[in-house]
Amino acid sequence: MAEFVPSTIIQTPDFLGLAQQRQDQMKKEKAATYNYIKDYKQTGENYLEGFIPAVQSQWNQVEQAMSGVASDDNVGTRRALDNAYANYSRVAGTAKQLTESYHTNTSAFRSDPAGFGVSFDEYDLTSQAYRFTPQTPNSLLAMSDYVLPKRKDFEINDPVTTARQFYNDLGDRIKNEFTNPTTGQINIGAAENAVRDLLDSRMNDPYSENVLKATVWGGIDSGLLGQEKQIRNEQQFQFIVQQPEDKKERFLGRYNEAVVNEFLSLVPRETKPTSEAGKTIESYESVRGYKVPSLLIYGAKKPSASDVTAFPIPESDIIETSNKYDGAKDAQGRAKELKEDIVEVMVDGDGEILVKVQGAFKDKTGKSLPPGVMAIVGNLPGVDADANRDVYTTIRPAKPGEIAKIKSNPGLLSLLEKATQGKMPLAVDVVDPLNVSGQNSVPSSSGNPLNLNLPTP
Description:
Number of helices: 15
Number of domains: 3
Structural class: alpha+beta
């Protein structure tokens, strides 16, 4: 008989259920991956134009890492995403901070340019370069804030101020040592030597503050900072003081010469005379002379003494003198010394000194000459007498004693020297060439400025 085998139920796997479970699991994993990835967001900031390439390149790295996580979500890909995003955040954060700092500083400069130590051109150049120069992530992270230096006033030696100070320091020496008390003229060479000695004494230490400030001025004046004429910041200051020694010596020399020139411009070439002689000379400054091509000198038969420069003697200083003339003799035949006044002084082309005199036909004692003697003197060549034979005028060579009297008067001596040197200021009035109407001189005319009776040659 056959053996009985009990029947069993064979359960097969629920492949449909398993598939569903797997799908559900994958959905959960994808959802988890999505939820993980979606937390890594790109910041929406407005960066400077030059910063955008660096920030964008870092975000591209984040997107690549996100794709890696999305395709294979594991510890390694997630770590890569974390690192990429950390780098992006660091670059983007730096870009944001630098952008904000840039806008703050540029706005401050535009509101108050004078408060900063840069010119507008320098600001424009540096701000544009900072803003538009493309950056890499590494170069961006290495950048500093765009900071404009605040204005800092550096004290430098101004030649004008220094020259005025030196002028005050040397004022007594200029007045008492360098000025001629008679003429009032100042010895400019001596004044220049004095100010150079003073400069040397103050600039003998190359490390002194005076030398440093003077050197900086010389550097600026020589164009080392371009068009800038002042120090605006520490960088400019250091740029000058760190120049080679030979250049700094030239800068200092430039400053010294500027001081000397400015000092000399303050020194008058002459002052009012302080001595009595000087005051007398000054009182003669208004006297003007005139030129006489030729004239008749007493005793000559025809005009002589060419190229004569004549000038009057002020009435208050007319010189008393006397002279003997041919025919002016008493009854005993003795020559009479006629009393005269020197009213003009003349210098001819040979340097001989002549005098124009006026007399009253009286001897030295004041007695009138006999009429016959008057007639003889009045008719002498070169002697001009009035119709009544009261006064005569003539021109003759000055005698040594008369020259001594002329030179004893500082004012007349100064005029005599000017006439001899050809420096006499001349009058332009033909009718009154001496411009001394009312003084003790004979009126002149264009044809005969001395009003003499000139014989026909």
